[in-house]
Amino acid sequence: MYLVVVKDDDLLSPYWAYRPIVLDEAARAIDNCLQGLSLQKKDELVIEIASDVIVKSEQKVYAKAIHTYYRNRLSEEARKLRHTRNSSFFLFIVGVIVLVGI
């Protein structure tokens, strides 16, 4: 997949602490491109940043920003999954107690 960046300030957020962050609009564009890819393929997804304004040394920063974005999303989804699992287990126990009490 190729990601074309017209202006270098269109990809990275100007505000970040210890890791670069992708702007929400750029993240939505990447997600939109990923929608059409098949999950059945076991190949690694490679995003190449094609731009006249970004030099090779800056591309590592952009790659790290995209990687950080998806690592954060994965962590958030894992947290939601744990919460859903724990809630389901708790409600299952409550349901068993209610049925046994009847």
From TrEMBL:
Protein name: Uncharacterized protein
